[in-house]
Each structure stands twice: as structure tokens, then as C-alpha cells.
Amino acid sequence: AVVINAEYGTAQIRIMQLGHNAKLGACFLGIFGCYFYYGIVQEKIMRGTYGPDKERYLYSMFLVWCQCIINAIFAKGILMVTGGSKGDNTPAYLTFICGVTYVGAMLASNSSLKWVSYPTQVLGKTCKPIPVMLLGVFLAGKRYNIVKYISVVLITIGVALFIFKDGKSDGAGFAFGAGEILLLASLTLDGLTGVAQEKMRTYGTKAHYMMMSMNLAALTVVTFGLLITGEIWQAINFCLKYPAIVPEMITFGIASALGQNFIFITVSEFGPLMCSIMTTTRKFFTILGSVVLFGNTLIMRQWIGTLVYSRDWYWTACTAKQSSRPQRSEDP
Fold first, then answer.
1. Phi and psi of 170, rounded to 5°?
2. Where does the pLDDT of residue 68 fall: very low under 50, low under 70, confident under 90, or very high at 90 and above?
3. How many other C-beta atoms are found inside a 10 Å radius of the C-beta of residue 274?
4. How far apart are CA 238 and CA 236, in angstroms?
5. Could you give the CA distance from residue 190 to residue 186 in angstroms, rounded to a whole number?
6. Secondary element (H or E) of residue 329
7. Which of 87, 98, 126, 257 is least surrounded, with the fewest CB atoms within 10 Å of its CB?
């Protein structure tokens, strides 16, 4: 009887493992597919031209506004279907801070595409562990092992190799312009978002409730900004003048909502480490896609920087997985 029970238990574990792997694979394909398309459409909107006069779309705040609306509607729909629409004990100020930093990071990131290519934006945004680590140490009192500090240094080297611009005839070396400044601002706000989310987790905030509340808070801020600047009327006029952009904006928002959904599922089911591995892999292939589809050529040094970054993330993921197992029960 003991042998039969043991064999039955082993079979159950194998069945559960198959289900686990299937869900993991579905999350990876979901994140990869949604954000690959998200990135392609984003670059087409922000860097493309419309009409015979080849006008460019310049209203990144309005694009984020549409994105937040679709994200919030999607999250609310999931909560209603799953019966998890009840609120929680998360303080309103945390939700507001998270929403403000979240939307600020998106605005800065989208606006940077006016000056930098999408591959530069993508790899620049992969520096996210740097502000998360620094702000975690100074604002949340976190401590990290030496492996993670080394990882951050190598990531920085990889990104520096990528964004460094060769000098031209005027002797210019490292060009740090408006696009790079916006990327730096976006990274800082990403780090603040991470700190706020960690605090929200201590209140047991559910994944889709966090998604909905973050987007609603962000929507409030963006709506205020649109009305103050008058950008909403300019963007609407642009959409009326060039209606071909409307389907692109809708599909952009849908891809964002689906991608956020898969990210939250991955974080809740498999942990943030696995989510980082997935999103990093996705970003690397997005760079390749952008190079192929939009002709954003990369020189050898930039390819080396991309490979250094990707290799370091893989090494960090493997070592972190081993070192974090005994401490898993301490996570909030």
C-alpha cells in the first residue's frame, strides 16, 4: 500500500508539473507576443508619418491616456469574471503614488522615441534593476548580495556599449541628449514604482486589483495633464484628420492590457525573477524585430553590448534562483 501511494503521489506531481510548465509556456508566449506587437505598433505611431504632408504624431500623453483606459477596463473585466472585484486594505496614497510614477515612466519612455530608436529605448529600459536596487536600499532599507551588485555593473556596461554614439567630424563623443534624459527619468520613476508596489504587497493587494487601481490613478493624472496642456484637443484633431491612426492606437492599448495581464500572472504564479527572464528575452527579440522591420541598424559594438546584457541576465537568474530558495518563506 505504501508503494502504491508513493507511485500515485509521484504521478500526481508529474501531472502538476506538466500543468505548471504549460502555464509557464503560455505566459512566456503571451508576454512575448503581446509586447513584441506592442513595441512594433508603438514605434510605428511615434516615429511614423501620416498623410501626404508626412506629419508625425507628437501626443504621447494622449497615447498613454488611451492605454490606461484599456488597461483599467480589461483589469476590471477580469475582476468581475473571477469574482475578485472587492477592494482591499491598500492605502489610497500608495495607489496614487504608484499610479503617478507608473504613468510618468510611460510618458517619459514614449516621448524618448522622438529622439532615439526603439532598440535604444528597449535596452535602456532594461537598466531598470539599477534604480530598483538603489531606491530599494535608500528608501526601503533593502540589502543585496554581491552577485546582484556585480550584475548591475555588468548590465550598465552592456547598456553603455549600446547607447554610446561614435564621434563624428565635429569631435563629439558621448551624446547624451533629450532622448537619453527622458530614458533616465523613466528609469527613476520605474524604481519608485517598484518601491511602491513592494509596499502594496504587504497589504495583500491582488494582481488584477493592483493593475486596475494603478491604471485608474494614472488615468486621473494624465486626464488632468491633458486638460491643462490642451493636448487632448490637438490629439483628437490629429486622429480626425488621420483616422488610420485610430486602429493602431486601439490595438496598441489591447496589446498593452494583454501584456500586463500575463506579466501579473507570471509574477503571482512564478515570481518576479521568472518574469524578469521572460521580459528580458522578449526585449532582446524585440530589438531584432525592430532592426528587421524598421531598418534600425546596429554596429558591432552595440551587438556586443546587447549580448553582454543578455548573458548577464541569464547568469543572474540562475544564481539568484539557487540563493533565494531557502528565503522564499520570508517573502511577504
1. -85, 0
2. very high
3. 17
4. 5
5. 6
6. none
7. 87
DSSP-H helix ranges across the chain:
2-47, 60-82, 92-112, 118-125, 129-140, 146-163, 178-201, 207-229, 231-241, 245-270, 272-294, 300-324
Q: Average the pLDDT over each of 145-149, 270-274, 281-285 and give the range with the smallest value.
A: 270-274
In one letter, which amino acid is 267? V
Residue type, 265: I
Rounded to a whole number of angstroms, the distance between the first and last alpha carbons of the chain is 39
Residue 111 CB: number of other CB atoms within 10 A? 21
Count Cβ atoms within 10 A of the Cβ of residue 327 and give its class: 0-12 exposed, 13-18 middle, 19 or more buried.
Answer: exposed
What residue has cell string 535604444?
Answer: 120
Residues 6+ apart with CB under 8 A from 41: 248, 251, 252, 255
* Single-letter code of the amino acid located at 159: V
Q: Give the span between the Cα atoms of 57 and 51, in whole angstroms.
A: 11
* Residue 212 grid cell: 486596475
Residue 89 DSSP code? S
| Cell numbers for 54 | 508626412
pLDDT at 256: 92
Q: How much is the pLDDT for 234?
A: 94
144: its cell numbers: 543585496
